Amino acid sequence: MPEVNPLVPDGAQADRQKLRRLRGLTLFLMAGLVVSGLTAIPLETELSFATNWFGVPPTGAGSAISGVTAWLARVSAGVAETNRHFPFMAYGTDWLGFGHFVIALAFVGALRDPVRNRWLFQFGMIACVLVVPYALGMGAWRGIPPGWRLVDCAFGVVGFVPVWLAWRWSGELESKPAARHHAGGVPARP
Questions:
Q1: Domain-wise residue ranges, the chain
Q2: How much is the pTM?
Q3: pLDDT tens across 106-149, in order?
Q4: Helix 10-39 to helix 146-174 angle, to the nearest 10 degrees?
Q5: Are 150 and 17 a contacting pair, CB within 8 Å?
Q6: The Cα angle at residue 75 between residues 150 and 80, in degrees rounded to 5
Q7: Per-residue model confidence as pLDDT tens digits over 55-77
């Protein structure tokens, strides 16, 4: 049971706790974006690790591989070949990582004042929803296997949950301006 401060009304204590949880959730979202961005940069190294983990032969050849291992072998060979002959193509994934970092940085506003910057959570929900048609459409166009497209869609579906929670909690705090001020937020707008 949480410790109750006798000098703070129960509602304000609950709002302070909600604000703490909201900021923790925002930090979690930001960390997820940063980690996701970091994984977009060393693709060849990551694919080498994944192919070793799944026991894909170094050449990727052989009839013994199928499904996920065949896909990993193909992607690994494609990335290695592209990096060997056209290393500048990796610049695209470098920028993909940068985009993740910048989006994470934008959430500093939500971390500082999650109620005033509640729109960032709406932006996050919209982005998560858009992942699904983008992954399905672009994945089909680029020849990505259907199963992998569903994995990509899962990032949007799973990511939606914490962003929606943050949006909901910030709305609850927004409806109580006096408690929000007491809970450590900024005073309500006039």
A1: 11-182
A2: 0.81
A3: 999 999 999 999 999 999 999 999 999 999 999 999 999 999 99
A4: 150
A5: no
A6: 150
A7: 887 665 555 677 888 889 999 99
